[in-house]
Every structure is written in C-alpha cells, then in structure tokens.
Amino acid sequence: MTALRQSVSSPSEALILVDDNDAEIGVCSKQACHAGDGLLHRAFSAFLFNPKGELLLQQRSEHKPLWPGYWANSCCSHPREGETIEAAARRRVSEELGLDCDMEFLYKFKYHARFGDVGSEHEYCSVFAGFSTGQPSAHPEEIADLRWIAPAQLTAEIAASPERFTPWLKLEWEVLCRDYLDDVLKKQERAS
To answer: Which of 123, 125, 142, 172 is catalytic?
Structure first.
C-alpha cells in the first residue's frame, strides 16, 4: 500500500514578487499571483535527464487551475521566502518526484502566458538541468503522468502538437536545445 503524501502547495502560499531585474519587492498569495494577467514572481524549471540522455516529462494534474493535463518539464515551482532558488528546486524535485539530485543553473528569463480567462503565468524563471538514476514517483496532487523521452522526440512532438505542451516548456526547450543541451548531455556522460 502506498503511503499518503502530504500536499506540497496551496493557493494561499506566499510567492516572491520581483521587479524586471528579479529583485524582491514583496510577497503575494499564489492564487493572486496567477489571477488575471498575473503578478511577476520568482519561479524555477528543472529538466532532469537519465543515464540514457532522456528527459523526464510530467503531465500536469487535471486539478491544476492553469494548463491542467498539459505536458511540462520535469518539475517547476516557486521558492519560499528566505529560500534560495537552488534549494527550492532540490526541495520541489524531492516533493513532487521523490528524487534527490544535483542540478546546475543554466539561465533565467522572464515570460508571460495567459490561460484563457482562468489566469496567467507571469514569472522570472530560473532554469536548471540535472541527472537522476532513480525511479521517479509522481505526487498525485501535482502530476497525472510521467514519461522519459529522447530530446529529438520531444522536439518532434512539440513541432507536431504544440497545443499539448505548456508555454514555458516550449520557450525553455528551444533555448536549452540551442544553447545548453550538448554540454548538459556531455557532462552527464562523463559523470556516468
């Protein structure tokens, strides 16, 4: 029997508001940050690869208010007040996927994406890459499904059916493939 996992997020949790230079300017509830056009807040995205060079994708839970059922990168979330972005990424990968792995910061960028009339993502997002030899275990409140995919296959699927993927995954994957993927995979090969 699988043990029940504690909830790892709530609409009332405080997110860190930032300015256009990613400097902290306050806090606001997660729900308020994602309402309407959204408030610019700090976030991260993690891309986890296995020893075969495949990327772990997650399908967002149908209970998510924004982009439910869409495919996204391995893990994405927000740091808490007083928590570094690196610590937040490690914490959330453990909470959502049951994995403990080192991650390398790649870059950060600002984006805004609206999900119909429901709300928006308006984030200053730090992007990380990491490696795992472990078997992920999806948190049922956060993730509907998981799968490993070869980078070329993901690129092909995004080109064929972009509507199945979150806007941040598409933006981040384009930059990651263009500027970082070769080095990330070479580092993983040397570490194996």
So the answer is: 123
